[in-house]
Write a structure and sequence with these properties.
By secondary structure, the chain is α+β, with helices and mostly antiparallel strands. The chain has three domains: about 1-185, Alpha-Beta Plaits (2-Layer Sandwich); about 190-245, 5' to 3' exonuclease, C-terminal subdomain (DNA polymerase, domain 1); about 260-405, 2-Layer Sandwich (Dna Ligase, domain 1), CATH 3.30.1490. About 40% of the residues lie in helices and about 20% in strands. The chain has 15 helices and 14 strands. It has helices at about 30-40, 65, 75-85, 95-110, 130-135, 135-150, 165-175, 185-190, 205-210, 220-225, 225-235, 235-245, 275-295, 330-340, 375-395; strands spanning about 5-10, 25-30, 50, 60, 90, 115-120, 120-125, 155-160, 180, 260-270, 300-310, 315-325, 350-355, 360. The strands form three sheets. Strands 1-9-8-2-7-6 form a six-stranded mixed sheet. Strands 10, 11, 12, 13 and 14 form a five-stranded antiparallel sheet that branches. A three-stranded mixed sheet has the order 4-3-5. The N and C termini lie far apart (about 50 Å).
């Protein structure tokens, strides 16, 4: 069940003006697991772990009940089972998560048009234009939290600050189910005691370098000269970290964020060792990715195949088709050519397919003539079939219809 709201402030001194805290970072708490608990009331208050259920599966999301015993996203599923054997383990339902995400984003966009969606479960809002109608930044944050809870049945944590970076830090610190406001004028004091790992761009290697310099807090980074930081970390990283440590983040909230690629990948419980076995998985992946492409009203020109062998060596191969399209046949033929150049007998641990060079779908679909033999009409017919399949899936579920070649487990030839 949702927890009572925790409303935190970085500075509770009376008389402060919150009006200039106009950037909100909204983050859905334990999103995948929360959707599972929403849909199945029996799971509420219990540990829920979402992810691949095979021997090589990893955790995609864990409820806070599971996090209390150390389960985290990206943890191997076997380790998660040992850490929390009483949990309910669930395979991801990405279509359902996407539906709930769109529901929440629609709520945010009804508050302000300036919504920058970062991922399926988080977004920035610039609420300067909404303050006259809805109140201060913190007041709008409360409205958002209440509406998401009431209308979508989910819980969000929100950070309110003067910059995107600081709003993100605040929402992270307010989790779970919290609201944290960093008042204008207190930003540097708020950031100073936090660990340097809170700065965007500080990974393990940078953390080691800063540790060798005896720099452990954001305040210590802010106190260093730019020349010292750039000498140790390089110009770009040194300048960026010093700016963030001083809350210098001029980036605006950009409402329209266009995806650069759409992809899917699968890690297999048992290594694949034949071309036919790999081909069957490629058919599934291409079918899944092109369906997402069409659902987003997009076309693509470049297909990329990713393969990871049993020894963890990972290769990627890409090819660009002459004309942007959303027809799965085109990309399946292209990815199969890429697969032909790779050795499947070495043992394939993972396969992935992604489409890039995206653009809005043209009015005329599927007009690519692959071989100059009059295939245009055939592809137009194929495009019409695929859009009909999409309509069936939207109504009856993503597994209601699929490539005929997979019905008996053989890849065969896709028409």
């Amino acid at each position: 069940m949702p927890r009572p709201e925790r409303d935190l402030r970085a500075d509770d001194r009376p008389g402060r003006d919150f009006a200039t805290g106009a950037i909100l970072h909204v983050d859905l708490d334990a999103f995948y697991a929360s959707v599972e608990q929403l849909d199945d009331p029996a799971l509420r208050g219990r540990p829920v772990i979402v992810g691949g259920l095979g021997g090589r599966g990893v955790v995609a999301a864990a409820s806070y009940e599971a996090r209390k015993v150390g389960v985290r996203a990206a943890m191997p599923m076997g380790r998660a089972r040992r850490a929390c054997p009483s949990a309910t383990f669930v395979s991801p339902r990405f279509d359902r998560y996407s539906t709930k995400s769109r529901e929440v984003m629609a709520i945010l966009e009804s508050v302000t048009p300036l919504v920058e969606q970062l991922s399926i479960d988080e977004a920035f809002l610039d609420v300067r234009g909404a303050r006259r109608l809805l109140g201060t930044g913190p007041e709008i944050a409360r409205i958002v939290r209440e509406r998401v809870r009431a209308e979508a049945g989910l819980v969000v944590s929100v950070g309110v600050a003067s910059t995107k970076f600081l709003a993100k830090v605040a929402s992270d610190l307010s989790k779970p189910d919290g609201l944290l406001v960093v008042e204008p004028g207190t930003e540097r004091d708020f950031l100073a005691p936090l660990p340097v790992s809170r700065l965007w761009g500080v990974g393990p290697a940078t953390l080691q370098r800063l540790d060798r310099m005896s720099v452990h807090t954001i305040g210590e980074v802010a106190a260093l000269s730019e020349s010292t930081l750039t000498a140790a970390l390089g110009n770009a990283l040194g300048q960026r970290l010093r700016a963030l440590a001083r809350n210098d983040d001029p980036r605006a909230v950009v409402p329209e964020h266009t995806a650069k690629s759409i992809g899917a990948e699968e890690t297999f419980a048992v290594d694949l060792r034949t071309r036919d076995a790999c081909d069957s998985e490629v058919v599934r992946l291409v079918d899944r990715v092109t369906a997402r492409l069409r659902r987003g009203g997009l076309e693509a020109r470049t297909a990329t195949l990713k393969i990871r062998y049993a020894n963890f060596e990972t290769l990627t191969r890409a090819r660009t088709v002459p004309t942007a399209t959303d027809v799965s046949t085109v990309f399946l033929a292209t990815v199969r050519e890429l697969l032909d150049a790779l050795d499947c007998s070495r043992g394939v641990r993972l396969l992935g397919v992604s489409l890039s060079a995206l653009a809005p779908a043209a009015a005329s679909q599927g007009v690519l003539d692959l071989d100059g033999s009059g295939s245009r009409v055939r592809l137009e017919r194929r495009a019409a079939v695929e859009r009909a399949v999409d309509a069936v899936r939207d109504r009856f579920g993503s597994r209601s219809v699929g490539p005929a070649s997979l019905v008996d487990g053989r890849s065969g030839t896709t028409p």
